[in-house]
Specification:
Layout: E1 3-8, H1 15-27, E2 37-43, E3 49-50, E4 56-57, E5 61-62, E6 72-75
Parallel strand pairs: 1-2, 1-6, 2-5
Antiparallel strand pairs: 3-4
Length: 78
């Protein structure tokens, strides 16, 4: 079972920052190297969050239902 890496999304988050690391966390570092992780998103609520670049993201979790067991947290600056 893959471990979750939680990306924290706040209003006007910098959408390009997560774009560099998320694919490697989700798919691994090469064709023969499978990832042990899956990327999930968290915000204050489960309402859609809009990035500074205009992308609208529907978070997987709110701060009230973050799972107790996760592998790491990535905070995307605003």
């Amino acid at each position: 079972m893959k471990q979750e890496i939680l990306f924290i999304l706040l209003k006007d988050f910098a959408d390009w920052e997560g774009a560099y690391i998320a694919p490697y966390l989700n798919y691994g570092c090469g064709p023969d190297i499978e990832s042990k992780y899956v990327v999930k998103t968290v915000s204050v609520t489960k309402a859609p969050v809009v990035s500074c670049g205009g992308f609208t993201v529907l978070p997987n979790y709110s701060i009230d239902d973050i799972p107790a067991d996760y592998a790491g947290i990535v905070y995307l600056l605003d």
